[in-house]
Design goal:
alpha/beta; Immunoglobulin-like; 2 domains; eight-stranded mixed beta sheet; four-stranded mixed beta sheet; 17 strands; binds zinc ion; Peptidase M28; metalloexopeptidase activity; FN3_sf; secreted
Length: 443
């Protein structure tokens, strides 16, 4: 009797341990709100970090800010035996490139790369922005603390590097500070082009832009809600892919949307106290962010940010008007919340960096048959594969089946017409690639 009970308990424990990984909880616990507060304070105290601001001063302007960011990454690297390759990536942007570039400027980004042990040329990226602005986007001299927009995202990125540099991953991770965001997404554009030139395989980018405000202009106060923005399908898809979608579906199943679902699911598993809101749109209505240039280049990318914005604290001259205090100042940033969203990033960077690549080809069959059939290309390093499906109206992959180390499978009794399907690759520790929506059919 006792033996049976013990066996039963053992089975439950083993099953549970296969579903979650203690290292992910350790990563959540290691993120420090105090260090994030220190970093946001430091960044806000550079006075202005406007892209066109002073680059010579040691205490004020974007030059001092980026040198400090680089030195912080280097400190992190020193603590892990040089595990980060830290460098500037820069492009000259000429006066008049748009109305916000009022003089020639070097747009300088800071990259810190933690090389993967097995797939060094595959990269998952977390970014924040270095630059800030006030009411007039060409005003590069007035105080522009940009505490939330976007010292919060930058500080989160520095902290994620500190936490994750204690581990070894199979894929590479890039921690990145981007410039030129407020002037027209120049920094992201520069790195996306650099990635293409280097032949980097980009798993995806998590663009963190404003992760510190919990009091919304809508009156809602929440330290658990946050948004994941993702576009439906890549802008550079071919006419053939567009036509295929009409007959096979996929309007809401592009690579960035799959990345959004990945983050959503992982947060629900490991941080159930949080409320991730998937927003089915590239970005906020008519506004931009630094994931877009990566999307333009055909890479998966999402924006992670607070759910309840306050517009009196964004892009504003610091002033009091009609009793309202305007300005993106330190007082409005909630550091515990910024730490939670940093943990959201860190656990997803880790999960993807520990996971095998996704299958490149996924074919689906089963037209006018009682069962759905799948074939996919084998993935080096995968211990097995998981087939996912969901009602066509559901935003999340609600059903799944682990099918082992095979490259084809039939879901008996599941009619192809009534669901959407996808396949992911699963590593030996249970970490998964993003889900791949079928990109081919067979009879
Ligand atoms: Zn902004």
């Amino acid at each position: 009797m006792k033996k049976w009970l013990l066996l039963g308990l053992l089975t439950i424990t083993l099953t549970l341990s296969a579903q979650t990984d203690q290292r992910i909880y350790d990563i959540i616990d290691a993120v420090s709100a105090e260090r994030i507060e220190n970093d946001i304070t430091k960044l806000a105290n550079f006075g202005t970090r406007h892209t066109l601001s002073d680059t010579v001063s040691q205490t004020r302007g974007i030059g001092a800010a980026r040198r400090w960011i680089k030195s912080e990454f280097e400190k992190t690297s020193d603590a892990c035996n040089g595990c980060l390759n830290v460098f500037y990536q820069k492009d000259l942007v000429k006066k008049g490139a748009n109305q916000r570039i009022v003089h020639d400027v070097e747009v300088v980004n800071v990259l810190a790369i933690q090389k993967g042990s097995k797939y060094p040329n595959r990269y998952i990226i977390m970014s924040g922005d270095i630059d800030s602005r006030v009411s007039d986007p060409t005003n590069f001299t007035d105080d522009s603390p940009g505490a939330n927009d976007n010292a919060s995202g930058m500080a989160g990125t520095l902290e994620a590097a500190r936490v994750l540099s204690k581990y070894t991953f199979e894929n590479s991770i890039i921690y990145m500070g981007l410039s030129g965001e407020e002037q027209g997404l120049f920094g992201g554009g520069g790195v996306a082009q650099y990635a293409k030139d280097q032949g980097w395989e980009i798993i995806g980018i998590f663009n963190n832009d404003m992760i510190g405000n919990i009091k919304g202009v809508d009156g809602i106060v929440s330290n658990v809600d946050f948004r994941i923005f993702s576009e439906p399908v890549p802008p550079n898809e071919t006419e053939e892919q567009r036509r295929a979608r009409r007959f096979y579906g996929g309007e809401v199943d592009g690579i960035s949307r799959q990345l959004a679902r990945y983050v959503h699911k992982n947060v629900k598993t490991y941080m159930p106290e949080m409320n991730p809101m998937m927003i089915y749109r590239l970005d906020r209505f008519g506004r931009g962010g630094h994931h877009r240039p990566f999307n333009d280049a055909g890479f998966a990318g999402i924006r992670i940010m607070e759910a309840h914005e306050n517009y009196t604290q964004q892009h504003q001259d610091i002033r009091v008007e009609d009793g309202i205090a305007y300005g993106d100042v330190l007082e409005h940033v909630n550091f515990d919340y910024a730490a939670k969203l940093t943990a959201v990033n860190a656990i997803n960077l880790a999960s993807l960096a520990w996971a095998p690549p996704a299958p490149i080809e996924v074919k689906i069959g089963g037209i006018v048959q009682p069962s759905a059939k799948f074939q996919w290309s084998k993935v080096d390093g995968a211990a097995g594969y998981k087939i996912y499906w969901r009602d066509t109206t559901s935003p999340t992959w609600d059903h799944s089946r682990f099918v082992g180390d095979v490259t084809e499978f039939t879901l008996e009794g599941i009619v192809i017409d009534n669901f959407f399907f996808g396949v992911s690759a699963v590593g030996k520790d249970g970490f998964e690639s993003p889900v791949v929506f079928p990109n081919g059919i067979f009879r």
